[in-house]
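Quick note —
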Amino acid sequence: MCLAHAVFWPALAVSHYAKPTVAGTALVFVMLLTLAFTHEGALVLAFAIVATLAPRGLRDAFFLRAAAVLAVVLAMSAAVKIMIPPDEYYAGVLVRAALNFFDPAIFQVSIVLLLFATLAGYAGIYLVLSRLAPNRAYLHAAAIMIAVLAVYWLWLDHAILASSRYYLRTALVVVTPVFGALAALGAMSGDRRLAFPFSSLQQAMTALQRRAARPLAVAFMLSTLVHVVETGKFVAAWTDYRAAVTSLATGDQSDPALGDPRFVSSERIASRLNRLAWFSTTPYLAVIVANFMPGRLVIDPTGNYFWLSCATATANDKAARTVPKEGRDLLRIYSCLHR
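Predicted structure written out below.
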């Protein structure tokens, strides 16, 4: 999804501004094809790009070109799924992932609640102060919210964006097209390319840009502040968590009940640090942080998702690789116990 998010913006720009020539059409095709194959959810982003061209008119050459390219890309995506189907293990995983992709659990993630609270608080304070100091209300509102956030982070905050980060893929698929649509509307309004009835939005967009530019800029700054602080908290905690995994992977402790005398449970890590664990990738992290030569493979006993089949891990273990055999051998044993 991070790749999809990165490709979305140049694909959006190319779809709107590439010249209606063979080269321009080829460029649009390459960008939308790349976007579609980054992640299954990226098809939603591809549809959103085509939808942002609709305000130009359904007969507009740019809209028709993007729609035709999207149809070809969808056909190619379907063909790949048919010709190279997932194996039995991944087929069920993909179905469950698709059914639960738009997960309401996103609204239970601490950083999402913090962002909503920050922006709602800023908006409420701004509306109140705009009557008292209309020209500088956004600055006063921002100063108050920064003070409130400082109190929260210093004395009340105990959350960290760790395992719950997985739910934010929903936000990427929902919010990114919204920002893309706003950017496209702003660009088309400035270029005066909006068809009826969207042409009536041009004056409204211009007025909004004039009146709300500074307050909106401050809102984005507050949002960025939240992301910077939460990222700093994660990096600091991750440094300690990585050190804890390294200690287990290179130490003498073991839990043979997990399937091998060289396995050790990640539950030995302190709970405040183990919040950063991702059960399906913990064994691979243990190999990496031990310089690819771990004495122990760190395993989450509650893990129920396994990346490698026994056949794949065995073939990798027997092959000549740059990665030392110690780590590959442990991963083979682990994989064959489960797949």
